[in-house]
Amino acid sequence: MKAIELHGLEKRFDDFVAVQALDLTVEKGEFLTLLGPSGCGKTTLLKLISGFFEPTKGTISLNGQDITKAPPESRDTAMCFQSYALFPHLDVRENLEFGLKENRVSREERKNRLDDIVHHLDLGSQLEKLPNELSGGQQQRVALGRALVMRPSVILFDEPLSNLDAKLRDSVRLEIRRIQQDYGLTAIYVTHDQSEALALSDRVLVMNKGSMEQLATPEDLYSRPATSFVADFIGNANIMDAEVIEQKDDTHWFLETPIGKLLVASDKAPVASEIRTCWRPERIELFSPAELAEPKDNLIKATVRDRSFQGGFTDLFFEAEGMSFRLQVQDASIHPGDEITFRIAPEGIILLEAKA
């Protein structure tokens, strides 16, 4: 069942188009993340759904009801802000109950909801504290709880973890995902952090200049990016121009690239004779000289220019035709100046858009 439907949605600020001609459907119980760089339109889109902005064009439906012109307070949504937006003069209990009292929820129902949220978010020992007596993670849990006690149909997150340190972000995002699943909530989450998007989401909408660049599961975004922009924004990718020089069969083509002639395996044909293509730095296989007795497709020889030890893996960098390329390997014994031979599997090469 559809929770949210956007049709032809557009938002202009004078001559600037922040969101343009966007169609989107979000299913009930889905966790959708809006991902993209600063200024791509993701927060504007969230504010259109919440009612803080009114669209220039298009419609917004919530649970089948047109809410395009409805004010925020009459929409069955709740917002969890980046800044937490807690009332500094109210303790945790009062912050959690504020919206319930404003909506005249009965005392018994308030208690039931409060007890439930306090249990889920482990806030029992914090109820009498003011916000400035809490850690950042505790404040974020209170902000989340204040939204959840309203039992919204849709909960909206505006970069809620950006003020937390890296380790705390990991633990809080796990809590957010667990609670969203426990309550069966529909969630729309804004972030510019790709690791958050991949870890949390059922689907991710990658935005670029106010438009939808690609909408897919995290796995598909990473393994099957549709454009160079998505490939570059999601994870690390070696992106390069290529010329299609020969078709081997229905699913294999030979490409001429800056690192040599490569065989690519794809269930989609190249969109042009000159295209952009990419490969992930970890999807390679290193070969020792003794392992090269038999010829193999897509073998590449390179001289390591730089290395960066990352603990679980080592980044290696080499150059070809003035371009820098990255490999991620488990072998920490390779150093600048070493000669290496590696292979990119044909299915590890991703065909992208036509060369501009």
Tell me about this structure.
The chain has 356 residues and is α+β, with helices and mostly antiparallel strands. It contains 8 helices and 21 strands. The chain has helices spanning 42-50, 92-102, 107-121, 136-148, 166-183, 194-200, 218-223, 228-233, and strands at residues 2-13, 16-27, 31-35, 57-62, 65-66, 77-80, 154-158, 186-191, 203-208, 211-216, 238-249, 252-257, 260-265, 274-279, 284-287, 299-303, 306-309, 314-320, 323-329, 339-344, 349-354. It has a 6-stranded mixed β-sheet with strand order 6-7-8-3-9-10, sandwiched between helices. Helix 2 runs parallel beside helix 4 and helix 4 (136-148) runs parallel beside helix 5 (166-183). The two termini are 40 Å apart.
Span between termini? 40 Å
Radius of gyration: 25 Å
Work out the number of β strands: 21
Helix content: 10-25%
- Summed up, the helix count is 8
Strand order within the widest beta sheet? 6-7-8-3-9-10
Form type:
elongated
The topology string of helices and strands comes to EEEHEEEHHHEHEHEEHHEEEEEEEEEEE
Query: What is the average of the pLDDT values?
Result: 91
Spans of at least 5 consecutive residues whose pLDDT stays below 50 are none
What percent strand?
A: 35-45%
**Class by SSE composition:** alpha+beta
Largest sheet: 6 strands, mixed
Provide a quick synopsis of the model.
With about 350 residues, the chain is an alpha+beta fold. Helix content is about 25%, strand content about 35%.
Keywords, separated by commas or semicolons:
alpha+beta, six-stranded mixed beta sheet, 24% helix, five-stranded antiparallel beta sheet, single chain, 356 residues
